[in-house]
Amino acid sequence: DTAVSQTPKYLVTQMGNDKSIKCEQNLGHDTMYWYKQDSKKFLKIMFSYNNKELIINETVPNRFSPKSPDKAHLNLHINSLELGDSAVYFCASSQGTGHTEAFFGQGTRLTVV
Amino acid sequence: KQEVTQIPAALSVPEGENLVLNCSFTDSAIYNLQWFRQDPGKGLTSLLLIQSSQREQTSGRLNASLDKSSGRSTLYIAASQPGDSATYLCAVNTSGSRLTFGEGTQLTVNP
After folding, report:
1. Which of B24-28, B40-44, B83-87 has the lowest mean pLDDT?
2. Residue B78 has pLDDT above 70, yes or no
3. Average per-residue pLDDT for chain B
4. Out of B41, B46, B52, whose CB is closest to A103?
5. Radius of gyration of chain A (CA)
6. Are the beta carbons of A32 and A47 closer than 8 angstroms?
7. Rounded to 5 degrees, what angle do the CA atoms A4, B92, A66 make?
8. How many CB atoms lie within 10 A of CB B9?
9. pLDDT confidence tier of residue B3, bands split at 50, 70 and 90
10. Which residues of chain A fall short of a pLDDT of 70?
């Protein structure tokens, strides 16, 4: 069973479109995250949710809107896609926000053309 | 603001060699430090988690150490194999709700 799963794995879309990436974890964790890995392979946090509540929004443009319908899901919706949004987006989860291990999904490679 | 640096950026070694990857961080007030492996086009696989109160963790041929006061961690890989080829990422949990990553060390183990 996949612990943290993201769909789709690949996403190619045109500038200006709106798209969503879904994430689900079956680990029973209460904290979920979105990270962005840019073309230089550098990973940086975007959002963090604990018990469906937003606890970190790392100066991400308003075009990015995370939604957590329940503790097991954290979806990422992106409006008006731009070329610079092309990257690999990783979902992750952990139990709590302190001393616990984080588990990552396989990533969604977004290409904006 | 926490900054994480990994040295070297790339490393190529012959099979069987023991090797050390280095990670340094600027803020020693951490919850834990986690080492990950990333294969090309794949997600991140957690290798080892070291809590701030621990000095080291071991898993198979991997040993990670943590010196919180000096802001350093090392990942030791014994008897390297071609299957160990990947990018190794160090990540520090400082605020409790985010990981700050280094840029990674790209390891190639040649048969």
Report:
1. B40-44
2. yes
3. 94
4. B46
5. 13
6. no
7. 45
8. 12
9. very high
10. 1
**Cross-strand partners of B106:** B10, B87
- Inter-residue contact A104 to A6 (CB < 8 Å): no
* Interface contact B97-A99, CB threshold 8 A: no
Specify the 3-state DSSP secondary structure of A9: coil
Kind and range of the H or E run holding A88: strand A87-94
The CA-based dihedral angle spanning residues B94, B96, B98, B104, taken in that order and rounded to the nearest 10 degrees: 40
Beta bridge partners of B50: B33
Which residues in chain A are contacts of B100 at CB distance < 8 A? Answer: 45
Distances (CA, A) of A86 to A5, A39, A40, B63: 20, 8, 12, 35
pLDDT on residue B74: 98
Supply angle C-alpha B43, A52, B37, rounded to 5. 15
In this structure, what DSSP letter does residue A20 have? E
Q: How far apart are CA A23 and CA A74, in angstroms?
A: 5
